[in-house]
Amino acid sequence: MAPPSCETATVRVLCPKLLLSSGNQPGALQWLIGSPFFPPFTVVSTFRCIHQSPDLDQESDDLRKLLPKGFEVIGGLIVGDSDAEKSALEAVRATRRLRKSISEGGELDDEKIVGASVDAGTGAIHFFISKTEKLAKLEPVASVVYEEDKSGKYLWENGCLLHCELPIKLPFYFPASSPSESKKMFSEAVDAVITQFKEPNVVYIAETLKKASGDVPKPVVLRGKDFGFGADASNINRLPAAEDQVSDIISCSHLCLNSKPAALVNSAENADKIQISLMLNRSEKSPTSGAPVAEYFPAMEEARVIVVDLNLDVLTYAPKELPLMHAVSNLVIPALVDQLYSLKKIILPHLLMEHPQLRIYHFNPPGVLHPITTIYELNYGETEMKQVDVRKSLHMRLGLPLDRPLLRTANALDLSVNDDSRSNTKKRGSIQLKDVHIGIPSSGVSEDVASVIQGSYEYYHYLQDSFDDSGWGCAYRSLQTIISWFRLQHYTSISVPSHREIQQTLVEIGDKDPSFVGSREWIGAIELSFVLDKLLGVSCKIMNFRSGSELPEKCRELALHFETQGTPIMIGGGVLAYTLLGVDYDEGSGDCAFLILDPHYTGGEDHKKIVNGGWCGWKKAIDSKGKSFFLHNKFYNLLLPQRPNMV
Amino acid sequence: MFDVLKQQDVYTCRHKNSVSECEIFLHQTMVKAVVGEEARLTSAEDRLSRSAIPAEVGLVIGKLSSVLDRGFVFDLIPTPSNDAGEPACSVLETRDDKKKPSKSKSQSSESSSLSIDSDWVAEHARQVSRMLLGGVKVVGIYVWASDSAFKNSTMILCQAIKAVSDAIRHLDPALDEALLIHICYSPRRWNCRTCLLNSSITSSSLRPCDFKLGRVLSSLQRFKCNYSFNFRLPIYSKGESSRQTFTEILRQELAVHEKELKSANAMIDGYLVHNDEPCNTEGEHEIELLFPFMKDIRAEATKNVTGILHFGGSIHSYAYLNVKEPVSQAVTDIKADITRSLQSRLDIICDEAEQDLNPTDVGDDEELRY
């Protein structure tokens, strides 16, 4: 298929947010990510360039670890001045240097590169194509298509993920008298592993990851000897040529679900995943076979042995119609090799001491259409300074907000082989329902402009856990719901406190007398803020209202809270406490509604009952009969928890 | 809610939240019916009746399937005379003076009993089981004797069974029952009992069991497996680990290897063993064994090493499976066969080496080829 000529080239931008920096600093560079499997100039995502050194060594190192194989850097976007083409040329040159560095001096790469320039003054983006490295002239792109593809439908309809986990224990020996040779011996041992990947007695087993109901295709066995390794080190960018097509070749789609249930959106979470396992076939005919022999080889001088743990874990993206064998040899194996070298680089300086505990995690960060891979050093835990810096740097690179944890190990993709049943399943001990507001009837105020809570929470209410707090515990339950939100968003790992523990906290900080513990006394917004501060380090804003009638006026402020902070709000007024999950208001009419989660519910964990009974639902400030939801003659205090600025 | 523990053949059931326990005695899954290969067994019977020997003891070769609760007997092997030329089994006449001697001299008296050289039969079993292929085992003993002699010899027979099972247990640790076949010469009939192998075997350990003749050998399926391995074991300096001989190290290695084999995955005729169904295709089947890529570790970090023991080679292994048995049994049998083969080879070589040489320590670069 001949690529389209540049005169008619179209740049398709799939990523939701192209421009990451709002600051418009001149010279700021972003890499444009695409895939060799997509039509040319399709921009799937964009990463900030963090290390702007001339040789881009650090950048290429980072990107090689971060970007799954199947995706590649196809261009650059730079903040420049009014001379768009000149700026874009800089971006193009940087991209070509980066690609060379990433492929570590591979074949002469003369692919077409996309260069884009943002005018710092006007904010206009201009796209260009660089046909070849030699030509300094860029071709302007006439047509740019921005596709609203929030979930990555295009990627996951046409492609799937291949996941390969390979725990390796690698021993190597070096003379006890010259430890400096250890590095050389380790490198040789690593090279031997890489050679082993392509031996004829290696077997690659491909199976579907999701053992969903119904017929599961049988695992596919690919034998190393059938790969013909070494015959032609095919460029990863090329799909198999026509003559390579064998009539009964198995493609990745064989192991993908043919039709998804209607409810499942095509996204990275729901993508088809194929698990690849590497095994050694000890029954493969070996040229040198003889009766078992045990032979002892004494060392010439005393040696030492070191065993290095290398837990490889790679994720690659492949189009569904790609033959499975190609996917393994051109994507999975190079990914394993690259990761092996990355791990080796990290371990080498610490070879003779305590080895860093390296763990690989994959994430689906919001706003990025494809997964990313990270290598975390967890010797001292996640909150250690170095790790915090690593995460901050990743947040910067991916354009993620710096005030919420999105790349913690708890956020990582779960790629284990099991059933895909989540949410609302009854785990042992935990009976709370999650996110009960999802699917409820709309507020009736306006279409699609409600501002609601971001993220997940658990619904706590009266009489749960066989604890009778009916009549006095509503604010406690609201606090429990709020703390569950911070837990589920990974800001904290403490368990949701009981009524007694909440009371004990208030006594500890001196707000209440010791007799408070075990009592049935109410608490209000102030007390909640104390507990959140003491147990979670979370600070809160408090809004006071002399009368319930003042609440509807503050709808806009509340909406802003949900849009920026997105945390649940506790409303305390009169003798009642509620949890507020969202607001919906109409600028024009002044009509507004509040999404209330009522902790006074005394029934069981029955979602239908909860919704139908109005225990979670939209309450209009003034209903159709003219009655107000908020009482005019009572004070109201609102507690607005603030996200801690942490990653 | 309940924890169930099995110790030997006693099941104990304990409620998770309470302290009390109750013991449940469950009947061991015992073989309920045995089929013997008609051709081989009738020819054995013919030989015995023509030979007119008063008694004979020997080994029963076959397999017991706990999955199918059935036993299969392939052949009988008589235990030869011992080194002194004495038969392994003979009849003892214990005359009871109070009774009148019986009229017919050709018939043995009511109070005859058997004398069996249990140790010799056990040694026979040990040597034979080394030579058997996967899935084929020594499953018990048979005895050719009169009804009365048999009835009077229960203790002796139990002793013999115990001796045999103890002798072969190291090749089959899961052995928990054995067969006792009695070929009676008057009236002519075959009688089979299963024997529970406990620490003590008494007459109560014997249970009757169905026995019939049929076609067994022809319906066996053959599985074969080529197995190549290549290990490098570091040998640590004398100071850091206790001194070990070459053979001790190799035996340890074989134990490690056996564990590794047990957890290996298998492919049959190119397909992963997916669900455990019986194999219904004809002909010989090929089993391939798959192991984790590089997780077999025989090196312990940061120790001083004086040399490497290189242990490698190939083994061809066979196993036989009855048509109704699940294929996982063939895989288990192949693995057991490989382990037994290596152990037997090591045993034989060590036996010979110990006769010829003094025990060698690690540090001598002596090559043992076996």
Automatic annotation (TrEMBL), chain B:
<keyword id="KW-0472">Membrane</keyword>
<dbReference type="Pfam" id="PF14778">
    <property type="entry name" value="ODR4-like"/>
</dbReference>
<comment type="similarity">
    <text>Belongs to the ODR-4 family.</text>
</comment>
<keyword id="KW-1133">Transmembrane helix</keyword>
<feature type="region of interest" description="Disordered">
    <location>
        <begin position="85"/>
        <end position="111"/>
    </location>
</feature>
<dbReference type="InterPro" id="IPR029454">
    <property type="entry name" value="ODR-4-like"/>
</dbReference>
<protein>
    <recommendedName>
        <fullName>Protein odr-4 homolog</fullName>
    </recommendedName>
</protein>
<keyword id="KW-0812">Transmembrane</keyword>
